[in-house]
Amino acid sequence: MYIGNAMLLVLNLPLIGIWTRLLRVPYARLFPFILLFCLIGSYSVSNNVGDGVVMWIFGVLGYLLRKFEYEAAPLILAMVIGPMMEEALRQSLILSAGSFTIFLEKPISAGFILAAALLLVLPLLTRRKGLAKAWTSVPGKFSD
């Protein structure tokens, strides 16, 4: 790691001028080259065109998630914890012979399921109330 940092320092000090000029390039001109290098990199890993297609699909998905203002942290957490939770679910269902009632038998797990259901439904209810309140406050619309 020390050797890599030293080489990075030796290489980057003379190239600072080039990096600062690169920042002046308009994003509209730089973006196609970024996409090209990403596509070349994804193809060169295993010489498979499918990797490039996967890159494009996840790129569009990432763009849509950013456009609709989804948070990245819960998605990353789900990617990390998801396989472990799936394995635990599979083990629980094997122990209960496929019955989901095993999750409602103990008060702690039933409480967690109830809390999760409330947390999923609560935003929908508050949004509906907010929309109804906004609709009734419009002059001439159901204002009596």
Question: What does this entry look like structurally?
Answer:
There is one protein chain. The protein has 144 residues and is an all-alpha fold. The chain folds into two domains: 2-70, no CATH class; 106-138. The chain has seven helices and no strands. α3 (27-46) crosses α4. The radius of gyration is 26 Å and the shape is extended. The termini are far apart.
The low-confidence runs, each spanning 5 or more residues with pLDDT under 50, are: none
Note the run of SSEs as H and E.
HHHHHHH
Question: Which geometry do the CA atoms define?
Answer: extended
Strand portion, in percent? under 5%
Please count the helical segments.
7
Number of strands: 0
Q: Structural class of the secondary structure composition?
A: mainly alpha
Helix proportion range: over 70%
| Biggest sheet descriptor | none
On the 0-100 scale, what is the average pLDDT?
85
Radius of gyration, taken over Cα atoms and rounded to an integer in Å: 26 Å
Tally of separate domains = 2
